[in-house]
Amino acid sequence: MAAGDVVTNILTLVGQYVNFQPAAGVEVMLTAFSNQGGMNYIFYNGANEAWNSNQDRYMDVKVAITNTIYARFYSTATYVGYTGIQIK
């Protein structure tokens, strides 16, 4: 992948943590999260977490993640989708 490419995924593991960690040297700007009932999205560095809870079905965001500070998702009952763009 290269800068400018779209990054998107649907996470199908419910009730489990799922990490999205770009490769070393890669940076991604996540622009939206979606789910059907409630999820937590977390900034994570492998040891420490910063939580944010979302009960909406769709959320516009501007979240930059890297290989060292990346995204972790937890959904209690439904799948979680995200989309963004690789910026580096």
Would you mind describing this structure in some detail?
By secondary structure, this protein is an all-beta fold. It has a single domain (6-86), classed as Jelly Rolls (Sandwich), CATH 2.60.120. The chain is built from no helices and eight strands. A four-stranded antiparallel beta sheet has the order 1-8-3-6, with no helix packed on it. It is globular and about 35 Å long. The model has no long low-confidence stretch (mean pLDDT 88).
Provide a brief overview of the structure.
By secondary structure, the protein is an all-beta fold. It contains no helices and eight strands. It has a single domain, classed as Jelly Rolls.
Defining traits:
4-stranded antiparallel β-sheet; Jelly Rolls; 88 residues; single chain; mainly beta; globular
- The CATH architecture can be named as Sandwich
Q: How many domains in all?
A: 1
Roughly how much helix do the residues carry, as a percent range? under 10%
Question: How do the helices and strands follow one another from N- to C-terminus?
Answer: EEEEEEEE
The structural class is: mainly beta
Tell me what portion of residues adopts beta-strand conformation. Answer: over 45%
Question: Radius of gyration over alpha carbons?
Answer: 12 Å
The number of helices is: 0
Overall pLDDT level: 88
The stretches of 5 or more residues where confidence is low (pLDDT under 50) are none
Distance between the termini: 10 Å
Number of strand segments:
8
Strand order of the largest sheet: 1-8-3-6
Main β-sheet, in a few words? 4 strands, antiparallel
Question: Can you tell me the CATH superfamily?
Answer: Nucleoplasmin core domain
